[in-house]
Amino acid sequence: MYRNNARGGRRYPNRSRERDEMIFGIHAIREALEAGEQIDFVYLKRENSSDGIKELIELLRNHLVPLRRVPVEKLDRLAGRSHQGIVAVKAAAHYFTLEQVVPTLFEAGRDPFLVILDGITDVRNFGAIARTCECTGVDAIVIFEQNSVSVTADAVKTSAGALSRVAVCREPSIERAIDYLKQSGVKLVGASEKASELLYDCDMKGPLALVMGAEDKGLSEYAIRQCDHLTRIPLYGEIGSLNVSVATGVLLYEAVRQKR
């Protein structure tokens, strides 16, 4: 099933699932990859180093699938004792890459409108951000292979279905994503409470990627160095920061105001 993006033009597959699905064992995971199934991530037994596992790990890396080393007890809880030291979790939605999305938008005569989640791991924040992205016509949300949220069934549910409607690009690293976007002529605006420029004074017209950091750590050093602008939301109360999903909504609607 396909749908049109909220701003028109690009069509994205709707492949959300009701729940997370797991695949157990080396051969089953290999067959799933060869059949084109999208894997969200893989749990791998810490001390597992058999030849079959090594070959599968290389295949997973070629498909840009993140690996999470875990104790065997976790795998036993997930799959009993028939897992062969590895369990894969299917993606609850289809992942894209920036190379698939950005050129298509430019070719359609549209300015890319993106949100980059830099170090955000909380599924509730992810879902809330995705819902606001869908409502504001964002073309794609960018996440990463490591230390990042992913599109699980819980995330889709928390987003009120928005993650089935907004493209999600999963990239190997924020460095690679930022470099590609800068080379493509997309302006990067990072949200930072330490910035001197208020969001109302920040130019958000044209091709835009809004970079949002985790509440506890903020933006990564690379994002701070490479963003074209750092901007902040004025706060008048005693609490020093906003929830990241709320802050994303404030910034997105300022961008929408300017683009109109």
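Above is the first protein from milestone M3; the second protein from the same milestone is given next.
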Amino acid sequence: MKHFICGAILAAALAPGAALAADDCGQVSIAEMNWASAKIDVAVAKFLLEQGYGCDVKVVPSDTTPAVTSLAENGEPDIVPELWPNSAGEAYEKLKKSGKVVELTSILDPGGVEGWWIPAYTAEKHPELKTIQGVLDNPDLVGDMFNNCPDGWGCRIVSDNLARAFDLEGHGIKVFNHGSGETLATSMASAYADKKPWFGYYWAPTTPLGKFDMVKVDLGPYDKAAHDANQNADNPDPKPSAFPTAPILTVATKAFTESHPEETKLMSNLSFKTSQMSALLAWQDKNNATTDETAAYYLKNNKDTWKTWLNEDATKNLSKLLK
């Protein structure tokens, strides 16, 4: 069995040093969204807050809407990593304007990435396919097929409209509507295994984009008006537009930022590259690892990055791990 240093082992080794700051920090509540990348964020944050800053971290299972509602109504939890403002909509904007929360950082840089992709091996052999015009001019090189979002997904409406805007069918590219996220991911994996053409929608951070080297097709410039209109299933005249990058934030209550300035600085520094998070998800999948094991793998292999997030006392408390 392949096992790596897990969070519990690291915690046991470092707990005596961490106890030095326990009285200063107290209990900190942190929301854990119900998707894999958010769970990794929280595991890393929890370890550093507890072992570096002596906090007693309470993890609160949540999701976007419940987290925003709880912040607005109860002022809890203290910290919410991986909040997608675009998904929260007006409720988050009202919360932000109320002054009850503070945006600390983009926990994923540059954020949530969406787009239409082709395999890197295809792009290397046929670089003209890196643009949508190249794809339209050479449908056979992408297998004459576009792998669309599954039914019921928000991206489905936008991709449907973009397929009409670019007239994929008119250029000989069949739009295949996947019935689930599993079949969409499987289609990419199958194509990659046989080095066959693949063209379709995907997003990051995700396991497949961590496993497979994919190249985003240039759909042209982002046009906000066009993209907004393309989110309407009844758009009578869809226009081309690239997908915008979605901000993914860590937010905290104003009360927490005022009472815990050092912990706030840590959470303001804690951030991952979107591509790096996809790679972590791929590692987790390959090794059948738990969230804590994946967080430990990150901590073990990225010391030069996360040590810059810490204050002086936390650095001392975590010095055993930093050696």
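Note on the second protein: Confidence is low (pLDDT under 50) at residues 1-5, 13-22.
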